[in-house]
Design goal:
The structure is a single chain. By secondary structure, the protein is mainly alpha-helical. The chain has a single domain, classed as Hypothetical Protein Ta1238, Chain: A (Up-down Bundle). The chain has five helices and four strands. Strands 1-2 form a two-stranded antiparallel sheet. The protein has a two-stranded antiparallel ribbon with strand order 3-4. α1 packs antiparallel against α2, α3 runs parallel beside α5 and α4 packs antiparallel against α5. The mean pLDDT is 86. This is Corrinoid adenosyltransferase.
């Protein structure tokens, strides 16, 4: 007799009362800062997918995939109840690679490589110029919001500090990537020059 695969339903109905379960089983309100944090992280990851679906160079697509995978790791960290992070046998509930200093250095090295090919920035730049560049700027601003929420959570219940550092560096990376995409797509960078009184 063959093993029959039992389909898993997407809907559970367990959240109908406005609560959701963390990794480990603890139920919290859906507006809890922890849920806001990893929910916004999911929004960021979705925008990065949209950016990756654009007609951009192969290297940037590979980097974005690597980033998206790392955001899933951060999401798992944020979605884990700290009080249930360690199992009864003493092992960590999350049996995955966390965010390392190498992951952060990777983003910094990517920025340095792009910066070498870009003209120096002398003014703030208005987001836009090309739809792909705009998607990158939207991703950057959602990354900043994710970081703000994660920082608020960290002040209440600390988690891995490297996860916060990664989000901070990622928004910088996305800004530099937007500039690089502007160059590749020959989109004009419009400088913001304040009007004098």
């Amino acid at each position: 007799m063959r093993n029959k695969t039992i389909p898993v339903k997407i809907y559970t109905k367990t959240g109908d009362n406005g609560t959701t379960a963390l990794f480990g089983g603890t139920r919290v309100a859906k507006h809890n800062i922890r849920i806001e944090s990893y929910g916004t992280l999911d929004e960021l990851n979705s925008y990065l997918g949209l950016l990756r679906d654009q007609n951009i160079d192969a290297h940037s697509k590979e980097v974005l995939i690597k980033i998206q995978e790392k955001l899933f790791v951060i999401g798992a960290i944020l979605a884990t109840d700290p009080e249930k992070a360690t199992l009864k046998n003493g092992k960590e509930r999350l049996n995955i690679d966390k965010v390392s200093l190498d992951d952060i250095s990777f983003l910094e090295n990517e920025m340095d490589t792009m910066d070498e090919q870009l003209p120096p920035m002398t003014h703030f730049i208005l987001p836009g110029g090309h739809q792909t560049v705009s998607f990158c700027h939207i991703s950057r601003s959602v990354c900043r919001r994710t970081e703000r929420l994660a920082t608020a959570l960290y002040q209440e219940v600390p988690f891995e500090e490297n996860a916060l550092k990664y989000l901070n560096r990622l928004s910088d990376y996305l800004f530099v990537l937007a500039r690089m995409l502007s160059k590749q797509l020959q989109a004009e960078e419009i400088k913001w020059i304040p009007e004098k009184k």
